[in-house]
Amino acid sequence: MTLAVVASRALSGLDAPEVAVEVHLANGLPAFNIVGLPDTEVKESRDRVRAAILTSGFEFPARKITVNLAPADLPKDSGRFDLPIAIGILLASGQVKNDDIAHYEFAGELALSGAVRPVRGALAMACQCHAAGRAFVLPADSAAEAAVVGGAAIYAVESLPQACAFLNGLQPLEPFAGALGGEWPNYPDLGDVKGQSIARGALEIAAAGGHSLLLMGPPGTGKSMLAARLPGLLPPLSEREALESAAVQSLGSQGFQPGRWRVRPYRSPHHTASAVALVGGGSEPRPGEISLAHHGVLFLDELPEFDRKVLEVLREPLESGVIHIARAARQASFPARFQLVAAMNPCPCGYHGHPAGRCQCSPEQVAKYRGRISGPLLDRIDLQVEVPALTAEELQHSRPGEGSEPVRRRVFEARERQLARQGGLNAALQGEALETHCRGDEHALAVLAKALQQLGLSARAYHRILRVSRTIADLQGVETISRNHVLQAIQLRRVMQGGA
Hints:
The chain contains 21 helices and 18 strands. The chain is an alpha/beta fold and about 500 residues long. Strand 12 (about 280) and strand 13 form a beta hairpin. The termini are far apart. This is Fis family transcriptional regulator. InterPro entries: AAA+_ATPase, CHLI-like, MCM_dom, Mg_chelat-rel, Mg_chelat-rel_C, Mg_chelatse_chII-like_cat_dom, P-loop_NTPase, Ribosomal_Su5_D2-typ_SF.
């Protein structure tokens, strides 16, 4: 045989299109060429593959070798094609014989010693491979991630000789069966937060309805503490949500950790992060922080310190739950349905409104500082609450607050009501579903009409108040939204500039 075809996968956003690795051996001067729009990493595989084949005890054909990665118009990146290229060369030269090669797909980077190194995006590739009805042969270090796909036939190999022995029928391999999940994370307890009853209540509402939250207050008042305790109030991911979240994380630089299966991601990028780091991008588009937080929490501390252009990119995904990345040669879409929690100081020095009167910022400085966050972005944040400084008496004599466990139970019950009523969380209600499930009594509607007129609410703010009111009612086990629910929802978004 002088021609061999081995199946593999490329990565394009969350998709993993099939790539046919075609290897042809011809007479002529020895040469090794790779075609089919490979990038630098793929072109460099020539040296890795040659060394791996020789050190593994095989003969490298002294012939003209042409490797075509089809389709030719699909860009190919990374070293994942090393293993299928090596298998193709050995098949074409007759050193590996397997009549069922069409039933397998391969991916893996080769070391010069013949060892197989892990690859990025194993989970996304395994999903597509399983859908195509093939078994997936990949590095042992990536097998646990790929095994997340239920029912997929995963074969883990440590080296090129082991993969060849398996294909030649000399060393049978059992399908890899990974263990998912581990112990539930030991989240910090909400009872550690002293005082701050309003902020604690807002955190519970945010957890129950999936709402975005902004915490504003002087340094050291517990804003970051509150944000860190939100994941501990949220239920585990469903199977569908866990698979979506894991697929996105598998494309990141750190990959997906099977031990965190069904654990909601918590991302906290530094305020020096660029727009590309936040939303994703690059010549080969990869997910950013907002996509890596899919079905989880994105915490932005020191919100005004982020570059304004960086913050503005949050506006669309906060509404749509998806981010579209367009480059000259590549386009990709990543899911980004995250729960935003942000924290900020009230002024540049941080002590505006502090009882000690330490702030020396002028009104113009305060307005300029808060103006770093645009009105359209603020309009998309459901809850905006103040976290005031505690007095010495409150710090020394206040009793421990309610712990996470009872709050978590109330959150779970409220979420169950929402899922039974509308099949999703209140924060995601749109259009007709919003009108149907967020009905208030006549007193509630009167308060909303008055707020719309006096506070100058936008239609978006109006609807967000309705959603928050619905969540407050769900926490209380009440079906109809009342006047008090609406008043509380309005009060929980009036910290910025004294209005909505």
